[in-house]
Amino acid sequence: MKVQRDRLHQYQKRIKLITDRETEVARECLRQGNKSKALLALRRKRYQKSLLTKTDQQLAQLEALTSDVEFALVQKDVLFGLQQGTSVLKEIHKEMGGLEKVEMILGESEEAREYQKEINDMLGGKMSNQDEDEVEDELEAMEREVSGVKLPSAPNGNLAEQQQLDLPDAPTETPAQKAKRRREARAREAAEPVAA
Q1: InterPro entries attached here (predicted)?
Q2: What is the separation of C-alpha 16 from the centre of its chain, rounded to a whole number of angstroms?
């Protein structure tokens, strides 16, 4: 169609040259006093102009058709892109396994979180006071070890004699008193509101 359009443009240029030449022929004939030849040249010019008008109309139709075809090609490309995108989405959905698989995975994740919460609850809140005391004793021993405080060596004689030799004035805390102090501290911690 573009070739046809270019041919019509060339044809219009030729018609324009012919009409210009016919005008010159008509003037020349009038100068020579040949009125009938001048009239014939102007008639041919008029005919060429009518062909030029028809050519303009055909050219306008061809331009409109060319635009329609170009737009149809763009629509075809858009449609092809939509088809490609749809097929890619279908492949992705196929790989994901559908809604059921997504719901199953989300359900499994929720179950895993609940299981982990149960384990945390068991380890954090279900221990006996004696277990808590032993854990805190172990923590204190580690803290002293990390800070460089040496632990006293085990007594190798009578415990009562050893206590009198070490520090007679220092108050000693019995294991029962230590356990009671820790329980009270845990109770206070549990009763304090948690800061957000």
Answers
A1: Snf7_fam (IPR005024)
A2: 60
